[in-house]
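Lab notebook, bench 4. We co-purified these components, and the gel suggests they stay together. Before we commit to crystallization screens, I want a quick structural picture of the whole thing.
Request: model the full complex, all chains together.
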Amino acid sequence: MVSDVPSRARRMPGLAIPHRMRWPLGYTAAAVLVFLAYYYVIPNLGAGGQTFFRNWLPLTSINEALVWVICALGLNIVVGYAGLLDLGFVAFWALGGYTAGWLMSGFFHQVKIHIFGGATATVPGIHISFWLVLLIGAGFCALWGVIIGAPTLRLKSDYLALVTLGFGEIIPQVFTNGDNIGGFNLTNGSKGITPVDPIGIGSTRLGPFDLVWKYLIFVLIAAVVVFITLRLRDGRLGRAWLAIREDELAASMMGVPLMRTKLSAYAVGAVAGGLAGVAFATHVGGVLPDRFNFSISITLLAMVVLGGMGNVWGVMLGALVLAWVNSTGLPQFGSSFNEEFGTNINFPSYNFLLFGGILVLMMLFRREGILPESRTRLVLHEPSRTDMESLGADMEAPAPELDESASLKTAIAEGPVIADETGTGTGMGEKV
Amino acid sequence: MTTSPQTDASLDAGTVKLHADRITVKFGGLVAVNDVSFTIPGQSVVSLIGPNGAGKTTFFNVLTGLYRATSGRVVLGETDITNLVPHRIAALGMARTFQNIRLFGLMTAEENVKVAMHSKLHSGPFHTIVRTPRQRREERKAQEMARELLEFVGIGKVANEYARNLSYGDQRRLEVARALALEPSILLLDEPTAGMNPQESGRFTQFVHRVRDEKDLSVLLIEHDMSVVMQVSDRITVLDRGEKIAEGSPDDIRSDTRVIEAYLGKSGRDKTT
Ligand SMILES: Nc1ncnc2c1ncn2[C@@H]1O[C@H](COP(=O)(O)OP(=O)(O)O)[C@@H](O)[C@H]1O
Ligand SMILES: [Mg+2]
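Here is the predicted assembly.
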């Protein structure tokens, strides 16, 4: 949909679009096409056409998919760029969602704060404009990214994965049980916070049926996240992220501060998670804690892996496809199937099986994802030059012991004191 | 042998660039480096030699902050770096290459070099996202400098290749280019000629002198090829089983009985790792 356009634009001969303008133009064109389709074309189709789209590609499923895109792009920075495996990314989505819940609803009825809010000025609660809440949610999540990251990023990758898994479980639990924190109702427990104010544009408020406008807003947020991701990738910080992914120890020896750089990956990733959370709260008109479970983290990871770790467009495509399968494709396929064969199989309940299966299959057969970044494809399909040399290919000098460097990531045995960021020292049994 | 009178003079006159004072490193019961003191004068090439397991790499790791010395002090220029973290030490001008090449495989040669400019560049996320004029100027300069360094080590043609796809020799060169991007005052080379043929090793000697003179730095070299060591070094320090057993000019070392014993007495012509 949106994401395959840049590659198409690149292939168009004779169209001299400056390189840096290609993706923004392609993206905008695709977004506008979808908008026009849902604004003009589909409402004017015959009844059959309308039913088809309502069943198989409703706009609400596209909107939800865009929220997934935003969040997956955030996870891509952490996992795809910096190489930090995060199994609890749903925490940031939840934190962003609750930011919207708190600041865009009547939940805190004790107070009456209105800042360009989407509610009449007389109702109690905190009613802040959606656009401001986006910024606040992003900042709030960045802060939490640092709070969660500071103690955990010191850990080696496997342990980091476990601890993030823990955080991904703890934060939704806190929201579920947060209705009585010393007598204070912070989260309204399992009932969640509803309704969340509609998005306001000027004096207009987007009601539940203004899906096309919400669509445009989500497309815009996704574009901003893509833009930020690509820009950062090309600069000092992006290079440092990749260097850490490639060889943490060498990076630190080249003057890259590990903790700071990892924390910044966490914070920037969390910003995207926060934006997704706020957007999602307005998409469904509320926040419910049971939405934020472990399967969300795994689905996000599957999106990043399916699309091709580190590749923005691949991740976007992966997110759109998986989100659609999850929300529409699988249930629709299921009901068609059941109708056809007179069975009674609950297809949507197999979505987790499906995503797990996708992860396994991708890892086995196409680790670079469906739209791999060229560098990932390199690793996974072509033997490196030094590998070939060490296999005896006559290219130049022999290449002894090149693979020992890979051992860093796993080396955590007891060993000499290796200075780390704070100078407290960690055990690391590696010879350098 | 080829040590010119001029470098001897600069050796005497030059200020001390690095001073390691009574360094001891223990791994559990094993004393890898025992009470070794050591100085590197400005604009000089100092070699660290010794049999396999003598503690040379360990000594490097202490200098670069990767290992913490059990006792002792390291001073770089005027700064006590004993307890600093590796990235700070690197930023202060201590650069290294690795015995086993450690490049950023899935980044281009040019990006590899730019990573080492991290501490020299200052554009934060905001400037990078907005591409402010300041950030663009900085990136342009980084780009130029990276290209120059790649040319300097002779691999300008492969600037846009992924590091992992370079030939072994080019990877070694890229490691040097990357280290030089730190604009170091001390360049540590850990067995740089490993895997080179005699011709390449010969050219390497000239290369080290060119680096020393053009980049205005001192080189600390771990090296096993004695012909390289003797040609390239202004001064040689010999370690054996963690202890410094000799120190001096190439000629001094050549005739030192303890050194000959350390090398020949035990394992004969054992070429070490
Ligand atoms: N990280 C480490 N953990 C335990 N022992 C180590 C470690 N690094 C080096 N050593 C030991 O210290 C001694 C010196 O090693 P090293 O400095 O690598 O020698 P060289 O570089 O001179 O060959 C060896 O006995 C080695 O096994
Ligand atoms: Mg060694």
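The pocket of adenosine-5'-diphosphate (ligand 1) is lined by residues A 415-416, 429-431; B 27, 30, 32, 50, 52-58, 272-273 (CB under 6 Å). Worth comparing against the SEC data before the next meeting. Chain B touches chain A through 62 residues (CB under 8 Å).
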